[in-house]
Design a protein that fits this description.
Elements lengths: L1 H8 L3 H10 L5 H18 L3 H16 L7
């Protein structure tokens, strides 16, 4: 899993977000779980500038679809 995460983390942010968006689960609990795991990874790869804005918009979009971060 770590190797896969690192491989995706090296991809351009927009490409990564497009790949994730295409595979989003339709089930809201699954979407919440995905968000729980994605937030730390995306925060690590997009710390400033346009990438950070794109990631923030993407996460807001997921939250708008009913995904709530798990605590």
């Amino acid at each position: 899993m770590v190797t896969t995460t690192r491989s995706f983390a090296s991809a351009p942010v927009m490409s990564l977000l497009c790949c994730i968006r295409e595979q989003l689960p339709l089930n809201h609990p699954d979407l919440g779980l995905l968000l729980y795991h994605l937030q730390p990874m995306l925060a690590a790869i997009a710390k400033h500038g346009k990438n950070a804005n794109r990631v923030a918009e993407f996460l807001d979009e997921l939250k708008g679809q009913g995904a709530a971060p798990l605590r």
